[in-house]
Amino acid sequence: MAKKQKSEMSFLDHLEDLRWHLIRATLAILIAGTGAFIFSRFIFDTIIFGPKHMSFPTYKYLCKISNYFNVDSTFCLDAFPFTIQNRTMGGQFSADIWTAIYAGFVIAFPYVVYQFWKFISPGLLPNERKHSRGFIIVTTLLFFIGVLFGYYVITPLSINFLGTYSVSSEITNEIDLGSYISLVRSSSLAAGFVFELPIIIYFLTKIGLVTPEYLRKYRKYALVIVLILSAIITPPDVASQVIVAIPILILYQLSIYISAIVVRNQKRKEKKNV
């Protein structure tokens, strides 16, 4: 029997279709996560614990800048004044499993997006589908750029500030393994999803919930929200917040441009149909 067209499918048929797309995406994550679990030693020693060492590229670069301006900086330390510890019997195993799952999601992200696209694309008009062919590539590219930004900028800034912060010389920082991994994971993934802003604005504009005029009108409020967001995901110092806020503001401006293009194309289509 031929597969039903989207327009002919009932609500339950749509749910069944969505279920299979979710199953395929989940299987892809589990398969990628299994591969990540096999190479967990490399992931932990090189990637997860990379920002813990002063040899990390971000610290080297910021140390050179500090030396250039002749400013004392914690970016030029020999080592961070803290150690990472595990305090539960199953702590390391649990951390290994969950890190593999999150790594699997990052690795399988292009396929997850592909499954999402396969679900929504039949509901688009042929012309809309034609102009959205780059959806998977653009979405994946923005996500990976965001993850790299979170890993190489937000994570080291956070570790450098929080790892060297001290209220008394009587206190020794012995950071819990789960707390450290959570910081690296949340900083990287949060940045990855934030960088999807242009894609989100594109679809909101397509369904009429957002217009470029609306985005321009509330730009100043968006600036405040961006600064608050930067303050939440970065250490409480102005330099770090500005470093994080700049790319987000650029993404917001890019979203306005994308929204304007979508509206312009919709108006041209309406004129042709008149």
TrEMBL record:
Q: Where in the cell is it found?
A: Cell membrane; Membrane
Pfam families for this protein? TatC
Q: What membrane topology does the annotation report for this chain?
A: Multi-pass membrane protein
Report the domain of life of the source organism: Bacteria
Transmembrane stretches, by residue range? 21-44, 97-114, 135-154, 189-209, 221-236, 242-263
Note the InterPro entries from the entry.
Answer: TatC (IPR002033)
Gene Ontology BP annotations: intracellular protein transmembrane transport; protein transport by the Tat complex
GO molecular-function annotation terms? proton motive force dependent protein transmembrane transporter activity
* Listed GO CC annotations: TAT protein transport complex
Q: Which UniProt keywords apply?
A: Cell membrane, Membrane, Protein transport, Translocation, Transmembrane, Transmembrane helix, Transport
**HAMAP family on file:** TatC
Which NCBIfam families would you find in this protein's record?
tatC
Which family is this sequence assigned to? Belongs to the TatC family.
PANTHER family cross-referenced by the UniProt entry? SEC-INDEPENDENT PROTEIN TRANSLOCASE PROTEIN TATC, SEC-INDEPENDENT PROTEIN TRANSLOCASE PROTEIN TATC, CHLOROPLASTIC-RELATED
The record's subunit annotation is: Forms a complex with TatA.
- The protein's name: Sec-independent protein translocase protein TatC
- Origin organism is Aquaticitalea lipolytica
